[in-house]
Design a protein that fits this description.
By secondary structure, the chain is of the alpha/beta class. The chain contains ten helices and 14 strands. Helix 6 crosses helix 10 and helix 8 packs across helix 10 (about 305-320).
Length: about 325
């Protein structure tokens, strides 16, 4: 099967493309490289184009006989989305509508969507099931939820078939692919970079109602996320009904626990400083992924905190160069 992977030169997209290829399918990477990396696209077909360009989407689908789409391409900085909501709704919503319109015009009706636990906002309870109300607290989460709602109506009107994967904290690396954002905002790479000579880590909130006062999150290895996208597309091809799935381990780790694991793996202290809470950050976010395990047959195989940190440490210690003052 030829699979169009939008944002396939990014962090999660490139790991998913790697697994798609290893499974005997043909990934076709569609990425404008605004945040992705040419090197991450490997030896796969790379179409350097924007989702604002409907003609480019159409050519990609027709030229490569695309049979299904995995859609990652989006802006994903929560703080930036609050400051620049126009940027987020234009890219994450309007450009997704462009993609969907071209897909429907060309009779490509299976899409796996990279969504987020940000659609839930501040949860009513944890672990979070898919049935919990979705009340985003930032434009990023709102943009993801808007697209999920579009899917519902497009399926009724046009027969679009979809799976929305709401994942929690992507982390870790593979042998040749890792997390390389600019700016970097995720805890594990920031902690590793701090040990390797980068900036001191800011711990946002030390007075949460948790065991050690720091926020608790559900970390999932990026390869396990990638495998879920492939399983979800196969599920659609086999006529499984459209629906959303949470992706996480069901186990949370606090910021302090993550820093301690980085210290164990790196055999050095992580320089950090306490900072105030960020607005809208819930104390605890943990996924209930029962549905993905039971319906998709998904098993997170690499998502112990130690393996996540060890894999990220290996990649960053080989590739990271601290910026010079």
């Amino acid at each position: 099967m030829n699979i169009l992977i939008t944002g396939g030169a990014g962090y999660i997209g490139s790991h998913t493309a790697n697994l798609v290829s290893a499974s005997g399918h043909a990934p076709v990477i569609y990425d404008n490289l605004s945040t992705g990396h040419r090197w991450a696209a490997g030896l796969w077909t790379l179409i350097e184009a924007d989702l604002a360009d409907r003609s480019a989407i159409s050519r990609a689908i027709q030229d490569y006989h695309v049979e299904g789409v995995i859609h990652f391409a989006a802006f994903a900085y929560v703080g930036e989305s609050v400051e620049q909501p126009r940027k987020y709704f234009h890219n994450n919503v309007v450009n997704t509508l462009n993609l969907l319109d071209v897909m429907l015009d060309l009779d490509v009706k299976n899409i796996v969507y990279s969504s987020s636990c940000a659609t839930y906002g501040v949860p009513e309870s944890v672990p979070i099931p898919e049935t919990q109300p979705q009340r985003p607290v930032n434009p990023y989460g709102e943009s993801k939820l808007f697209v999920e709602r579009v899917f519902h109506w497009y399926e009724q009107a046009y027969g679009l078939r979809w799976v929305s994967l709401r994942y929690f904290n992507a982390a870790g690396a593979s042998a040749k692919l890792g997390e390389c954002h600019d700016p970097e905002t995720h805890l594990i790479p920031l902690a590793i970079q701090a040990v390797l000579g980068g900036p001191t880590v800011s711990v946002f909130g030390t007075d949460y109602p948790t065991n050690d006062g720091t926020a608790v999150r559900d970390y999932i290895h990026v390869d396990d996320l990638g495998s879920a996208h492939l399983l979800a597309l196969e599920y659609l091809v086999n006529r499984g009904p459209s629906r959303a799935f949470n992706l996480g381990t069901g186990k949370g780790h606090s910021v302090r626990e993550v820093l301690e694991m980085v210290e164990q793996v790196g055999k050095a202290p992580v320089p950090f400083r306490a900072a105030g809470r960020r607005p809208g950050d819930p104390p605890v976010l943990i996924a209930d992924s029962t549905a993905a395990k039971e319906i998709l047959g998904w098993v997170p195989r690499r998502s112990s905190l130690r393996e996540i940190v060890e894999s990220a440490w290996h990649w960053h210690s080989e590739s990271y160069q601290p910026s010079k003052p």
